[in-house]
Amino acid sequence: MIKPKFKLKPRTKKSLSETTSILMKVYNKQFEKGRFTYGTGKSINPELWDKDNDTVITDRKIIRKFKKENPYVDLMLESVTKHLQRMTNEVKRIFYEYDIHQKKITNEAVKYELDKVFNKDRLAENQKESFVQYLQRFITETESRKRLYKGKPYSERTITKYKAMLNTWLGTGFKKITDRERVGNGIQADFGKTVMFEHINKKFYDFFVEWFYKRGYLINTVGRAVKELKKIMREAFKEGVHNNNAFEDFKILKEKVFKTYLNNDEIDLIYNLNLTGKMEIHRDVFILGCCIAQRISDFKRINKTHISFTRKKNKVIKLQTLKTGAWVFIPFSSKLETILEKYDYKLPKIQEYQLNYDIKEICKLAGINEDINYSENRGGKKVDLCVKKYQLITSHTARRSAATNMYLAGIPPIDIMKLTGHTTEESFLNYICVTKEQVADRLAEHKYFK
Predict the structure, then answer these.
(1) pTM exceeds cut of 0.70
(2) What are the extents of the domains in the chain?
(3) Phi and psi at residue 113, in whole multiples of 5°?
(4) Angle between the 436-444 and 395-408 helix axes, to the nearest 10 degrees?
(5) For the segment 105-126, what is each residue's pLDDT rounded down to a tens digit?
């Protein structure tokens, strides 16, 4: 009785993949050179292969080891086993039918018969998606809402993030010349060949991180790129597009970064500036952000529909945040009400990049120009910097300033967290800009120290 054997394809020294293709070998004197070899379309980590029995391992100890890194290893092994058994049954059928019909067995004939059954599998193997092709499909499906996240559509902010990721891979789509020059031809071209999922292993991770370092990116930017890479790899893995789980070991680089905020006196300097046109609008939107501790994606869309009252008749802004979907209730301050009334509770449309550019000039006009010394990790190297404070101000400074000033005013962190959306006090305290000296001053006001 014919019984195919399954062997792992010999690995080359230059192989980047951590998995190896499984080949089916059938030995019979009717074949040319007495054997027939056929690709199964499956690959596996050699450590999960039982060479003595030509099948996947059944050793639970080894499987448990891999399961720590890949919770789906059992399903993957079961899938491979079923596929190989299906191929075995098909070979037996071919030999049986050729025998009863007295047909001659040849390499070409068996390949033809197998292709009729496994053509789709082989076509998928020969024309499988590259990483970039999958990323493109991922973006298209999120935009059409065919692909959901926890049952909900992906936000525009998230989709934009993945589009930027695609631009970095392809070196296209950048509006700013500086971005285009920094990325150049993109990750895909610099890798030297089409990046397939099996290429994304430890060697690729080192190449990937170094690619960003060579272009002077901050370490946290590199970390976010790794995080996005792992996200796409994990989504494709769950869909069965690949079975390469090497990405689970990729370290997401991160370091504490220098943060700054504007105190209430500095905010008043900005608020009292005599400005006109776009500068006035950007100043007002920024001040509004300093009042409500929300992200710019949320506070720039506030209008009359967001005005509400509590049961105690306190006027508040009732807003559902875009990033988390959480509802927040923000009390009115005099500055907040003045700005909203100025625009009849409908803020002019703005572009975040324009606000980020103008707010630096506005802060400079307000005299916020003290020297700030700090260090950052850029391109994998520590760089010491000295800049004027106004150069560090962005739209997000408004949110951090609001949270910090509320804390320094004595508002309990748990109450501020209801506005900012932080889920732990540790993450909140890491977010705000408070020195040990400021904490000491705050504690000194407590009755305990009186």
Answers:
(1) no
(2) 5-126, 131-249, 264-449
(3) -65, -40
(4) 40
(5) 888 888 878 887 886 554 455 4
